[in-house]
Amino acid sequence: MSEDLWKSRYLELEREQDDARRRWEQAEALLRRLAARLCLAARGLGAELDAVLDRIQDLLRGPLQEGDLEQALGALSEALARTETPAVQRARDDASLRIEDDLRGALDDLLGGLELDPGLQPRVAELRGLLQQARGLEDAVGFCAQLSDLIAAQRERSRLAQADLQRVLQQVDSRLSEFLGYLKGEAAEREAASASRRELDERMRGEVRDLTASVQQAQDLEALRSQVAQRLEAMDAHLRAFRLRESARAEAYRERAERMRSRVEQLEAETRRLRESLAREQVNATTDPLTGIPNRLAYEQRVALEYRRWKRFGRPLCLVVWDIDRFKAINDEHGHQAGDVVIREVAQRLARQVRATDFVARTGGEEFVMLLVDTAPDAAMAVVEKLRARIAERSIQAAAAPLQVTVSAGLAEFRGEEDPDAVFARADAALYRAKRAGRNRVERG
User: Fold this and answer.
1) Which end of the chain is more exposed for a tag (fewer CB within 10 A), N or C?
2) Where residue 340 sits, what CATH number does that domain have?
C-alpha cells in the first residue's frame, strides 16, 4: 500500500475525529446553557445562593476544571441548606423546584443522542437512573456535572484514539522511509558495481595493450617471458581486487536485504493491525451501540452518496423520518430499560423489512431515518405504510406485560435543486403533521 494512500486514509479518519469532536463540543455547549438557565431559574431566593450561582456561571464561561466544579457544587449544597426564606419554604412545600417534564425530557434526549464508545455505555444507564430520581435544583446540577464528566471522558477517548493512530502512522512513515532509503541504496550500489566493472575492463585492456607492446618490442625470449609474466601477474591482481570488492558488496547487499526483509515483515504486521483498527473504528463510529444499526454519522455519509447518485442518474429517491409514538410515556410508566428494548425492537423491524440497497439509521432518541433507493413516491408510501402496520400489529415484550407500540412517519422525495437537508426538513414537517393528526400514520411532505 502506497504512502499516499496511508496518508489519505489517515486524513479521512482525522476529519471524522474532528467531526466527532465538534459534536461533543456542541453537546458540551448545550450542557453549559442548560446549567446557566438553571442558575437563572434559581436566582432571587437568597443573597448567599445568588453569590454561589454567580460563581457557577463564571465557571461555565471558561474551561471546566473538575476541582472547581466540585467546590462550587459543595458551596451550592451548603447555600441551599441555609436558604430558608419564605419563598424557598413555599417552593419546597409546593414542589416548585422539581425538574419540569420538558427539561427532564430535553436532558434525556441529550443523553440519548450521545454517540459513545461501548465501554462508556453502562454510564448512560446510571445517568438515566439519576435523572429519573432528580427532584430539585441540586439534583439537576449533580446530573449536569456527571453528564459533563461523561462527555469529557468520551472526548478524551477520542483524543487518545487519534493519538494512537498518529503514532502508528509515524511508525509506518518511518518504515516507508527506510524502504525508500533501501531502494535508493540499491540504485547507488548498482551504479557502484557498474563503475567497478568498467574500471576492471579498462585496467585489463590497458594490461593487454602493454603486453602487446612488450611482445613487439622484446629483443630476446627471456625478456619476452619476463614481460608476459609481469603483465599476467598484474592482470591476476586486478581480478583478485575485483573479486574482493564484489564479495564485500555481495555480503553488504545480503545484510541489507535481510534487514529490509525484517522491516517489510514488521510493516506488513503493522499494516494488518492498522487495517483492523481502522475497520473497528469505522464500525464503532458509524454504528448505534443501542440498536446495532447505523447511526447519524453513517446516515450523513450514505445520504451524501445517494444524493450524488440521484443528481447524476436521476433515479427516484425517497427519505423517510420515523418516530415512536408516545415514547416518553413508555419511559415514564415502564422505565428507561423498557424504552431501550422498544427502540431496539423497532430499529430491528425497520432494518429487517427493507431491501439491502435501502438504508435505515437511528438519528437520536426514538427517531429513525430511512432512504428508499430507486423507489418512486407512491411505491415508497406503500412500503412505509406496510412497515407502520406491521409494527403496530405486533406487541413488544419490553415490560411485565406486552407493549402495544406504534410509529409515525413523514416521507419526502428528492426533487428539483433541494439538498439532503431540505428534503429531510420536508419529511420532518410531514412527520409532525402525522403526530398532530393522531399518530400511527404516514404523511407525505
Assistant:
1) N
2) 3.30.70.270
Please tell me the distance from the alpha carbon of residue 32 to that of residue 28, in angstroms, as a whole number. Answer: 6
436 CB neighbour count, 10 Å cutoff: 10
Long-range Cβ contacts of 308-315 (<8 Å, 24+ apart): 310/414, 315/373, 315/374
286 domain residue, yes or no: no
Nearest alpha-carbon partner for 292 in 350, 247, 332, 253: 350
Cβ–Cβ under 8 Å, residues 403 and 338: yes
Question: Catalytic amino acids?
Answer: 366
What angle, 0 to 180 degrees and rounded to 10, lies between the N-to-C axes of helices 3-41 and 221-286? Answer: 30
Q: Check: CB of residue 127 under 8 Å from CB of residue 146.
A: yes
User: Residue 10 CB: number of other CB atoms within 10 A?
Assistant: 19
Return the closest-CA partner of residue 392 out of 382, 402, 401: 402
Q: Do strands 407-413 and 367-373 pair parallel, antiparallel, or not at all (unpaired)?
A: unpaired
Give the number of other Cβ atoms within 10 Å of residue 77's Cβ. Answer: 14
Give the three cell numbers for residue 103.
427539561
Q: Is residue 437 part of a domain?
A: yes
The cell for 29 is 455547549
H helix runs in 136-220, sequence order: 137-217
Residue 169 within a domain: no
- 387 lies in some domain: yes
pLDDT in tens, the chain (445 residues): 455 665 666 666 667 666 666 666 666 666 666 666 566 666 666 677 777 777 777 766 666 665 666 677 667 667 766 665 555 555 444 444 444 566 666 677 676 666 666 667 677 777 777 777 676 666 676 777 777 777 777 777 777 766 766 666 666 666 666 666 666 666 666 777 677 777 766 776 776 666 666 666 666 676 666 766 776 777 767 777 777 877 777 777 777 777 777 777 777 777 777 777 766 766 677 888 889 999 988 999 999 999 999 999 999 999 999 999 999 889 888 888 889 999 999 999 999 989 999 999 999 889 999 999 999 999 999 999 999 999 999 999 887 778 999 999 999 999 999 999 999 999 999 999 999 999 999 999 8
The three-point CA angle 136-113-402 to 5° equals 85
Structurally, the chain folds into a number of domains equal to 1
